[in-house]
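Q: what sequence does this backbone want?
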């Protein structure tokens, strides 16, 4: 029977498009990945790839085998990981993608209790402010919001993904903004989308469901939302940033909301994980723990711009 590693080398090479990228994901050399794929081809008696010096292309047989092997590989890896858990408890490296604001403000405070409950799990956090491919990039889970659910991925909702207008207390007092139309006369400090490089154009919304465009005089454009809030603290203008980012600033009055009855609705923040029948025990433990922590701490309400 073919080894699990040979099959994984084939699947990751097919997903990555070459042996070098697959090798980085697997922690092997490109030569070792190519050798393992060659062993698999000889064992099966078919050619799975058409090789060039720069890339790989699946043969017809390779494409069929990939469809059959991918799901089975995930199940087998999960079964092995769960069986190998320390003392029957979840164990292993937990690779998670999430934004820095979530790590700093909402996840790190949970870690002492989580690690005390699951001492065999070693978190490996990657700071990404954009969606990642969980399967291709080898992530167990991701936390984020404002984007569509990709195929083969499940999600559990954590909180609304709301953005709000904020400014320094002094700026807000002198600006005297009463309606969204008043924004056009004031400088804006805006966050650029890490995916598109552009400023999102979702409208403001109030409790009645009325929508109005966000029109500010562009003053500063930034890719880091925390820097956006820091700039707003100096009085340079009005910032439009997410509730998770602005909440600490609002809590200690360093910033105040402008037009507090209005907000931008970008969907919801969720914890994402691969849609596997046999999810690794470490992933399920982390997902359940985070969801329960958000519920008991009522973070969904705190991050709701219509309630804060």
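A:
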């Amino acid at each position: 029977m073919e080894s699990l590693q040979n099959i994984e080398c084939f699947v990751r090479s097919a997903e990555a498009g070459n042996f070098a990228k697959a090798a980085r994901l697997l922690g092997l050399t490109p030569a070792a990945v190519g050798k393992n794929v060659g062993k698999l081809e000889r064992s099966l008696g078919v050619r799975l790839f058409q090789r060039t010096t720069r890339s790989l292309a699946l043969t017809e047989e390779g494409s069929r085998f990939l469809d059959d092997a991918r799901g089975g590989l995930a199940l087998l890896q999960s079964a092995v990981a769960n069986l190998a858990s320390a003392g029957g408890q979840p164990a292993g490296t937990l690779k998670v993608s999430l934004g820095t604001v979530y790590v700093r403000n909402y996840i790190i405070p949970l870690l002492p209790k989580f690690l005390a409950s699951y001492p065999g799990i070693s978190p490996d956090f990657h700071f990404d402010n954009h969606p990642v491919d969980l399967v291709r990039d080898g992530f167990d889970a991701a936390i984020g919001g404002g984007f569509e659910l990709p195929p083969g991925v499940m999600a559990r909702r954590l909180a609304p993904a709301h953005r709000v207008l904020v400014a320094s207390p002094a700026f807000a007092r002198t600006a005297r903004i009463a309606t969204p139309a008043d924004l056009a006369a004031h400088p804006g400090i805006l966050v650029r989308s890490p995916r598109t490089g552009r400023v999102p154009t979702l409208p403001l919304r109030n409790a009645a469901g009325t929508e109005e465009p966000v029109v500010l005089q562009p003053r500063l454009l930034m890719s880091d939302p925390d820097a956006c809030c820091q700039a707003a603290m100096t009085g340079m203008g009005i910032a439009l940033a997410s509730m998770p980012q602005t909440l600490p600033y609002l809590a200690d009055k360093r910033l105040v909301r402008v037009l507090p009855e209005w907000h931008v609705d970008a969907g919801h923040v969720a914890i994402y994980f691969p849609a596997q029948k046999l999810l690794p025990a470490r992933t399920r433990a982390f997902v359940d723990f985070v969801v329960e922590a958000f519920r008991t701490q009522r973070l969904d309400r705190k991050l709701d711009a219509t309630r804060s």
